[in-house]
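Figure 6 in text form: structure in, sequence out.
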């Protein structure tokens, strides 16, 4: 990996069914760490397009949603 690449090595916090309030704050921080656009898609919701996006904005929005879902699902036991 090139030294100029920037990424977060933090894994999503695991929710085991207890202490939801603490977990949700940690998950919110984790999602925000993935980027503003990722967090914005969590807040605004995401409606999957009927057809795969072909424009750059649509592709980026789809990527952000995938990151959101990945982080959230990885945070559940």
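Output sequence:
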């Amino acid at each position: 990996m090139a030294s100029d690449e920037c990424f977060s090595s933090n894994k999503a916090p695991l929710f085991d069914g207890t202490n939801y309030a603490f977990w949700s704050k940690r998950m919110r921080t984790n999602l925000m760490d993935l980027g503003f656009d990722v967090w914005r898609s969590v807040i605004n919701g995401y409606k999957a397009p009927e057809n795969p996006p072909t424009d750059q904005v649509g592709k980026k929005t789809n990527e952000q949603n995938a990151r959101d879902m990945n982080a959230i699902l990885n945070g559940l036991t």
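Caption detail: Confidence is low (pLDDT under 50) at residues 1-5.
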